[in-house]
């Protein structure tokens, strides 16, 4: 009885891992702040597409949450579709981020390579590292989908879906923080 | 037994899974799943220990090579050429390789030996055993943690064999040496391999740390409240917290470094002229100091990641072998906590001479000196635990006491360095080398040795040889002080660290004899460690066998498991816990294990 109140170890591990990821981005954003105060900093406006991509990733969080709900209601067909949509929204998000980089490059703000400015490079690193975390989530979603479609394995525990959901919301929230940070600071 | 891996929840309960354990023990364990890709925390702990020992030998041997150069700058040793080949042409280490050796020595000892080898070994061995769990929260991640460490080692090792040699820019890997390939031979492939290896190492540490934290907080047996935990567990817990919060910041520093190296960005680089190629780099606007901030934000917690496990084990071993409760249990936890917090607030004391704003510097001076307070509390408590104890001088106990001695000696010089005004003179001299080798290097090694001697019976069901243990202890203690004590004088006299040949300088020539003296004892000390390695492996196969599961009459749970326990640790139910771990000599009873219910007329502790 008392055990059921305890947080599941996998969920707990995820929370610690998220704290760890936060520290990495805290490192990057503090470096950003330190550098911004120094000479040779060229600020620029974030292209509008980053605002749209933010909306996309928020939408993907909503579909993810719905998927968890459907799983708990054992409505497996909807569950699968919602997972697919979530993963697709994740892919769209990544494509949009990448487009954002290209738009900046066309505007003449080089992110990497010769003649790049630190401000642009920071965007590449911060948004790039975030994209890798989204990619990790998409892969996890794909694995989860594989399991949902396999007939051999029937799982009734919601723990894996919930763990994935928490991670997905986390990556979403992380981007919102980074977006506000990048928009507000530069 | 696969239930353990599948359902971590079992560890928290006493009822389920029990019938499962009673019959079939570890069925179908092949050689590969038992010894190589094992998910048993006890086996993973041995893997960490033995890999760490291999690295300690390699890293120690590096120091013997560069000490030869420092002790005998004007002589040649053909045997060195036999071993090192073109790096020691004519029997004298080349300057470039000297720097590579120093760098590898530092990296290997700090990360591979004293982080992975120490925390990896004992957190793995003791956390499940002492909190009363069948395994870690996630045995799978735990196994991965070891294999990432192993892989990191392979990559680092391979860097010794590349054409341009291993990385040579110091264990702290400051740019531009680490960021610009043209800077030196070691800045080329060696630096890439160094960064890759360290990135793998960070992943390993994070996986390990996640598991340690989750296990301590979620998998304790019934009755094991946080304040009944042995101090070892508290120490491993704070160590893991420090690692999980600081390694990612180092990682972010490495990412920026990788971008600068490979993608032409300028995070750390600005207006650099490379002597070797007679050319100016295009990079502008970066700052090398930024890297130092990111590095030392990990770097300082890292030194406590190395020290805290040693502190925890010393506390436990001193209490057991004094047959007295640890003095000030709550104060011990409180001071660990204070150290863990302060560890994040003092990093800039490594940067007093980087042009840091002196007013900011004075804040860091204050915070740095504050660490002396919890440190002093700990020392006081160890000494009071020893005071009037019924001391058994086992090798483990001697190393634990030696740890306290070294921590005092090295902590005192920290107070010198923590004053920014003094540090202007002392920074980057041998004084710093002496400080951190005593307080971190040797002290933590002593903690590790204490742990190995003390828990060897748990790991292998045999004892290590005592006589060899005593020789090892006294020899190493004497050598440690003879090696590092004189370095304080050299440092006070301004002798800088990381120079290749001091005999070229009029002011440092006078230390020629002293340097030779240090080299001699460094070699003796290295030989003594080989004696320990011999004792270790010999005892695994030929050591005296254990006849009782609790050889030291200790209270903690690991000694309630059978000798050579299988995967799952306890054949029956996980025992329940009724008291703290330190009821020694209570009410005239020698020791009361944690599993014994509190008697009706027992006094309170
Ligand atoms: C009272 C406690 C301590 C104080 C005030 C203190 C202070 C300092 C300061 C100011 C430095 C920088 C010196 C310089 O580079 O100029 C330093 C270096 C160092 N300390 Fe401590 N320290 C203390 C304890 C420790 C402990 C407990 C450890 C490890 C377990 C440690 C490990 C190191 C290391 C590894 C370095 C040098 C790193 C390098 O530059 O390569 N210190 N210490
Ligand atoms: Cu420090």
Structural summary, described in words:
The complex is a heterodimer of chains A (186) and B (605). Chain A has helices at residues 2-5, 9-36, 49-72, 76-106, 118-149, 159-185. With 186 residues, chain A is an all-alpha fold. Chain A has a single domain (46-185), classed as Cytochrome c oxidase, subunit III, four-helix bundle (Four Helix Bundle (Hemerythrin (Met), subunit A), Up-down Bundle). Chain A is elongated and about 60 Å long. Chain B is an all-alpha fold. Chain B has a single domain (38-586), classed as Cytochrome c oxidase-like, subunit I domain (Cytochrome C Oxidase, Chain A). Chain B has 19 helices and four strands. In chain B, α4 packs parallel to α7 (139-158) and α13 runs antiparallel to α14 (395-418). Chain B starts with a helix and ends in a 14-residue tail after the last strand. Classes of the chains: A mainly alpha (186), B mainly alpha (605). The interface between A and B is large, with 38 and 45 residues.
Counted by DSSP, the helix tally of chain A is 6
The mean pLDDT of chain B is: 92
Distance between the first and last residues' Cα of chain B: 39 Å
Number of strands of chain A: 0
Report mean pLDDT of chain A, rounded to a whole number: 89
> Quick one: biggest sheet of chain B?
2 strands, antiparallel
Please give the domain count of chain B: 1
Distance between the termini of chain A: 52 Å
| Reported CATH architecture of chain A | Up-down Bundle
Entry keywords:
heterodimer; A: 186 residues; mainly alpha; Four Helix Bundle (Hemerythrin (Met), subunit A); 6 helices; 0% strand; elongated; B: 605 residues; Cytochrome C Oxidase, Chain A; two-stranded antiparallel sheet; 4 strands; 62% helix; globular; disordered N terminus; binds protoporphyrin IX containing FE; binds copper (II) ion
